[in-house]
């Protein structure tokens, strides 16, 4: 009886269980063709200097809308790329798009704006990330100082595997950002040693910041840490005007989030920049 019950339970759970594994399998199967067909794109989210209100950069975020799998999330895409042994092709696709945007930014009045890509910690074990980026940025004649690499604290700490590559990143002159800072466990000594340029504070610290004395203290302390270590500090996930206004008194220089701009396809950026400039001018007049 107990056995029957157990079996029935298993049968009940099986369909959902299987469809999840099926989806993962289908995503993996479809990825190579999608990369080759150009169906996997990078969208870009702006980063704003809170004092000058200027656009100081963009972050590239991978996007894939599959005809029958629907939208495939970035974590699903990244996992599939690793399972299908295509992590370098995924990063190459996003890096190429980042370079194409970088090449256009001077003509859009943003000659010093940076473009960032995300690299997952596991990738450093699978291939040489900076060698790939060297080839791509050179082919596009991109100044590495404007090309930013975002990695999480996990990758920073994994120096046994990735130490050489982090040195290579520094040698080539890329900007280096620590993503989701404060969510993991960084060694401050490594941050200094690796000449990290930017700390991107994890979104959890902005949530409800007006009401949370504790989050205000944390964000203020991290802004101070950035100043002490000569690292720019970026607050991500800023969703409202109230949140944006809370940041400057705390010493945060740069912000990114839905309040300033959602991720958008590259072709929408020129129009977005123009309407933003027009709005700022109206606000001053
Ligand atoms: P992340 O690098 O921390 O990127 C920020 C995420 O927060 C993005 O989600 C972005 O769309 C979202 N976001 C931005 N502003 C706001 C806001 O105001 N409120 C809220 N609630 N969310 C906001 P997305 O695009 O879904 O990406 C999720 C994660 O997937 C990224 O987190 C990054 O770790 C990873 N990822 C994205 N693209 C790539 C890629 O090309 N390669 C790799 N390896 N990872 C990627
Ligand atoms: Mg990021
Ligand atoms: Mg991240
Ligand atoms: Mg982040």
From TrEMBL:
<protein>
    <submittedName>
        <fullName>EAL domain-containing protein</fullName>
    </submittedName>
</protein>
<feature type="domain" description="EAL">
    <location>
        <begin position="24"/>
        <end position="277"/>
    </location>
</feature>
């Amino acid at each position: 009886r107990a056995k029957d019950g157990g079996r029935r339970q298993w049968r009940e759970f099986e369909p959902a269980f299987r469809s999840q594994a099926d989806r993962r399998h289908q995503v993996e199967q479809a990825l190579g063709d999608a990369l080759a067909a150009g169906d996997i794109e990078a969208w870009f989210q702006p980063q704003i200097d809170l004092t000058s209100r200027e656009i100081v950069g963009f972050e590239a975020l991978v996007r894939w809308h599959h005809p029958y799998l629907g939208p495939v999330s970035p974590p699903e895409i990244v996992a599939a790329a690793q399972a299908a042994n295509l992590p370098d092709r995924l990063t190459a696709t996003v890096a190429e798009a980042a370079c194409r945007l970088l090449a256009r930014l001077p003509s859009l009045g943003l000659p010093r704006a940076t473009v960032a890509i995300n690299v997952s910690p596991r990738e450093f074990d699978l291939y040489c990330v900076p060698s790939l980026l060297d080839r791509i940025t050179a082919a596009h004649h991109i100044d590495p100082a404007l090309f930013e690499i975002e990695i999480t604290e996990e990758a920073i700490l994994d120096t046994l595997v990735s130490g050489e590559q982090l040195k290579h990143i520094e040698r080539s002159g890329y900007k280096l950002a620590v993503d989701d800072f404060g969510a993991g466990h960084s060694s401050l000594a490594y941050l200094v040693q690796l000449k990290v340029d930017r700390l991107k504070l994890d979104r959890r610290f902005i949530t409800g910041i007006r009401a949370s004395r504790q989050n205000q203290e944390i964000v203020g302390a991290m802004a101070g840490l950035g100043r002490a270590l000569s690292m720019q500090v970026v607050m991500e996930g800023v969703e409202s005007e109230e949140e944006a206004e809370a940041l400057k008194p705390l010493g945060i220089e740069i912000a990114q989030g839905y309040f300033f701009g959602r991720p958008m396809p590259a072709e929408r950026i020129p129009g977005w920049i123009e309407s933003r400039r027009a709005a700022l001018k109206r606000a001053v007049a």
